[in-house]
Structures are given as C-alpha cells and as structure tokens.
Amino acid sequence: MSDRPRRHADGSALRASGGEPASEPGRAAARPASAADAGEEAPPPPALAGAGTEVPAGALPAETGIETEADAGLRRELAERSDQLLRLAADFENFRRRKAQEIADRSRYSSEDAARALLPVLDNLRRAVDHAASEGNGQQLQDGLRMVVIQFEQALAAIGVEAVETVGARFDPAIHQAIGGEESDEVSEDTVVAELQTGYRLHDRLLRPALVRVAHPRGGGGGSPRSPR
Known about the structure:
The protein is an alpha+beta fold. The chain is built from 4 helices and 6 strands; from the N terminus they run ααααββββββ.
C-alpha cells in the first residue's frame, strides 16, 4: 500500500481520521509549544509577583527608628505643655486668692479713715470731762459728758476700733510711744505706768500708738525705750 496521502480532486490533502487535514511531512507546526506542554511550571503574572511571599527585613526602609524619635518628641512637647498648664493654673489660683484677700481687707478696713477722723473728737470730749471735774463744775455736766464719751467709744467699737492696752502692760514699741521713763524696783521689765493719750487699733491694724510713760527695772540700763516713729 502506498504511503502517499490521498488528495481531493483539487489537490488538497484529505483529513485524517478526526477530520483534520493531514500534516505534510517536513512542515513545522504553526502553534508554539507552551510551558505546560513542556512539563514546566509557568511563572506567576508580573502583577502578582511577590504576593504572599515574605520579604527580608533588610529590604524594607528603616522607618521604625524614625517613628520612635517622632513619638518621643511628641511626648516631650506634651509634657512641656502640661507643665506650662499646671504653672498657669497655680499662678491663676494665687492671683485669685490675692484678689479675694484684697477685697476682704478693703471691706474690713473701709472705716479706717472715718475712725481716724473721729479720734480727735473723742480726745476733746475726754479733756472736757477732765476739765469740768477739776474746776468743780456741775455734776450733771460731767455725767453728761461721760455718757457722750461712752457712747462714742461704743460707736467706735461697733466698727472694729479698740483701745490699745497701756497701764500695767509690758512696753511694746509696736503699739506704745514712750514720752518719758523712770526707774522702779517694782518692775522686772519695761512696763507702762501712765497713759498720756489713748492709742487705737482697727481690728489688727494700728491706727495710732498710745503715748505712755514707762518704768524701767532699776539698774537695768535705764533710758527711754525706743518707740515707733
């Protein structure tokens, strides 16, 4: 039997058993061979290269150290801001307390000028009482003047004005002004023995010192004690 392929009447080769045209000897196939046909694994698509695979640590940029320094800087700045806020809050609290104290003092000592103006009037009333008694004037006048003095003292006490302790008290240059002094065996320290003019304080603030005479212990140095100017 002849090996030559059968041909149609027009000269084309007849199809093989599957109906495909028989390949002619010596002609290469037009379709290129694939990797699957060769039994090899095909490489992944370029877009998927590296997906799902681990990258060595050295291949990544060293961003961890930069973030740590930035965080540390933010923490320092936050601590500084917090300290500034605490200082500001403390300063404001001190300011608030000072203003509250100033307002309280202003209210407490608001009558200071009035009290100072009234003191000379009270002094004159006392002098009038003493003069009336020494001249032997009417008892009714003396009693009336004494009542005025008492009422005046009560009015001053109502606004916080009090007399400074004098006779029998230890000499205190903060509230006493010594006019004269004498030695005495009856005292062991400088002691007020006479009041020449009453001193007054408004609450804990001195309006004027008391004018006094002072007794010094005998042999204790003598001399008039210092008094406030």
